[in-house]
Specification:
binds S-adenosylmethionine, about 230 residues, about 25% strand, Rossmann fold, alpha/beta
Length: about 230
């Protein structure tokens, strides 16, 4: 677990500076729309935990929409969070962003008490966990009864033509442009592998169920390239 922490943390530290630009550019800004839809799918909650907060795009979106009054973000990459903090400061036009705190930590072993948060979110974080079930059990543990978990994650499109484009994109185009822009040889190849070897749809929802959640729902977005999952802790 210690090795994995360092590996993931340093991987995202290395690509942090180019992460937002590449995401928005390579997805033609569709990723922004996905995060807006994810925030819209959230039940309004007082204090939300944004797991794998990264550069805080989902945090900003949920605050902008009034879906959360206060947000705690947790991530293994201090560099991603540093950029996130700058964006939050710009967004609120102040250095006083007392409604947001970003904390270094592992989603699979979170330093929070049971039943601490009114809502939990995670955008494009789960597929990086070495143990998805451990991450989901942690989200369940820290969520208050009655609270909703809302997850945005890549999935695999069902249409064969879209699948072909998707494979081409993730296997060749993304790693190539990622290598060029971030100047990191391995990071975007790793991201590609983590997208393709991951579960989605029913199977992802089953993991939520196994972690203890109920009322699992999932909504595919843009031909099923990404999916929003919601579930409740009763
Ligand atoms: C693809 S980025 C997504 C960031 C952000 N949520 C977004 O929507 O852009 C994945 C993030 O997950 C973080 N991460 C990966 N594994 C983690 C873990 N086990 N615990 C905490 N953060 C983790 C990485 O450091 C990275 O910032």
């Amino acid at each position: 677990m210690e090795n994995e922490k360092q590996h993931i943390g340093s991987l995202f530290d290395r690509i942090a500076a180019t992460y937002d630009g590449l995401n928005h550019g390579l997805s033609l800004n569709i990723d922004r729309r996905w995060r807006r839809k994810t925030a819209a799918a959230m039940a309004p909650a007082k204090h939300v935990l944004d797991v794998a907060v990264g550069t805080a795009d989902l945090t900003i979106e949920m605050l902008r929409r009034g879906k959360a009054e206060q947000v705690t973000g947790i991530d293994l990459s201090t560099e991603m969070m540093r950029i996130g903090e700058e964006k939050i400061n710009r967004f609120f036009r102040t250095d006083d962003c007392s409604s947001v705190e970003l904390i270094y930590g592992n989603a699979q072993q979170m330093p929070f008490a049971d039943n601490s948060y009114d809502g939990v979110t995670c955008a494009f974080g789960c597929r990086n966990f070495s143990d998805l079930d451990a991450g989901m059990r942690e989200m369940y543990r820290v969520l208050k009864p009655g609270g909703q978990v809302t997850i945005l994650e890549f999935s695999y499109p069902s249409n064969r033509i879209i699948r072909w484009i998707y494979d081409l994109y993730f296997t060749h185009i993304l790693p190539f442009i990622g290598r060029l822009v971030s100047r990191d040889k391995t990071a975007y190849t790793y991201l590609n592998r983590s997208v393709k070897s991951f579960c989605w749809g029913e199977s992802f929802a089953q993991h939520l169920h196994d972690a203890g959640f109920s009322d699992e729902h999932f909504t595919p977005l843009t031909f099923g390239i990404a999916t929003i999952y919601t579930a409740i802790k009763h």
